[in-house]
TrEMBL record:
Source species: Teichococcus vastitatis
Protein name: ABC transporter ATP-binding protein
InterPro entries, sorted: AAA+_ATPase (IPR003593), ABC_transporter-like_ATP-bd (IPR003439), ABC_transporter-like_CS (IPR017871), P-loop_NTPase (IPR027417)
Presence of the UniProt keyword ATP-binding in the record: yes
PANTHER family recorded: ABC TRANSPORTER ATP-BINDING PROTEIN, HEMIN IMPORT ATP-BINDING PROTEIN HMUV
Gene Ontology terms, MF aspect: ATP binding
One Pfam family it belongs to: ABC_tran
Keywords: ATP-binding, Nucleotide-binding
Residue span(s) of domain ABC transporter: 32-271
Lineage, top ranks: Bacteria, Pseudomonadati, Pseudomonadota, Alphaproteobacteria, Acetobacterales
Length: 292
């Protein structure tokens, strides 16, 4: 049965939605300020004294750094999944110390590895997420019908409406990543934290996902932080780059100023070239690992 058919069986009207997931709805931009954030696991501190003075809504920040640098740990801390010292202020309101549920109304997080063995369809997972935590700050509870309507509109925008009725445990790796992204987006967050959202995607979906994340970030005024290992994608889609090395911020700024051979040598330990292609995009070519 097609998603549209099933949706109509569930009582979902096939009319243009009132703008929720359609392009072009402007929204007020949010602002995230991170001050002296320190966190880890038990007594082991992983991220030390991380300060990002102002991450502006409508902009994408790419969080880069080598394996084990602490990128996922930092995102978990921002999402409220790990205890942290310091300050995380969203639009001037302190998030540290708030309940996970209260934070989840504002901040959504897509983990690097999605949970396995969930016996729900893509649509059921989205509807469940919406009913458990209604969209947006202080959102009102949504009915089953509204939730299905919102979920289907989002799947259509992501180009995966054909997966609506497929079980999560039957999806390919890339399809699971797309479904995970849908779960992060469906609650209409103010802050969107994505941990390597393109790592399992083919070339077309990588571009499609980054383009959509960019559009939604602009339209909804989201503060978006994306962990990426593909520095070319970061250069192309990020407004702001933060490079984490061994739990501390090593470099921060615009892609052109941050993605330099010197940074790549120091933080990633590679000799690399950074050049512009014929389309004007920054290309990062790692030539060789450096000794030591
Ligand atoms: N659940 C955990 N318990 C204890 N230590 C952990 C846990 N998760 C990660 N770590 C440690 O924290 C450090 C940072 O890990 P993290 O996953 O944040 O790195 P990362 O930058 O996301 O790396 P990658 O690019 O490989 O995903 C590593 O030394 C890792 O071993
Ligand atoms: Mg990680």
């Amino acid at each position: 049965m097609s998603a549209a058919l099933e949706a109509s069986r569930m009582g979902v009207q096939q009319r243009p939605l009132a703008g929720e997931w359609q392009a072009g709805t402007p929204a007020a931009a949010s602002r995230l300020e991170i001050g002296g954030l320190t966190l880890g696991y038990g007594r082991r501190i992983i991220v030390r004294d991380c300060t990002l003075a102002s991450l502006a809504g409508g902009h994408i920040t790419a969080l880069l750094g080598p394996n084990g640098a602490g990128k996922s740990t930092l995102l978990r801390g921002l999402a409220g999944l790990l205890p942290a010292r310091g300050s995380v202020k969203l639009n001037g309101q302190e998030m540290i110390g708030r309940s996970l549920e209260a934070r989840a109304r504002h901040i959504t997080y897509m983990p690097q590895s999605l949970p396995q063995g969930v016996a729900l369809t893509v649509m059921e997972a989205l509807v469940g997420a919406l009913k458990a935590s209604p969209p947006g700050a202080g959102g009102l509870p949504v009915s089953g019908r509204e939730a299905a309507e919102l979920a289907l509109a989002l799947l259509e925008r992501l180009g995966i409406a054909h997966l609506a009725l497929v079980g999560l445990d039957r999806l390919s790796g890339g399809q699971r990543q797309m479904a995970g992204l849908a779960q992060a987006l469906v609650r209409k967050p103010e802050v969107l934290l994505l941990d390597e959202p393109t790592s399992a995607l083919d070339l077309r979906y990588q571009l499609q996902v980054m383009r959509l994340v960019q559009q939604l970030t602009r339209e909804k005024g989201l503060v978006t932080v994306v962990v990426l290992h593909d520095l070319g994608l970061a250069a192309r889609f990020a407004d702001h780059i933060v490079v984490l090395g061994d739990g501390t911020i090593c470099a921060e700024g615009e892609p052109e100023r941050t993605l330099t051979p010197a940074m790549l040598a120091e933080v990633y330990g590679v000799s690399a070239r950074v050049e512009r292609c014929s389309h004007g995009h920054l290309q990062i070519m790692a030539d060789a690992p450096l000794a030591g």
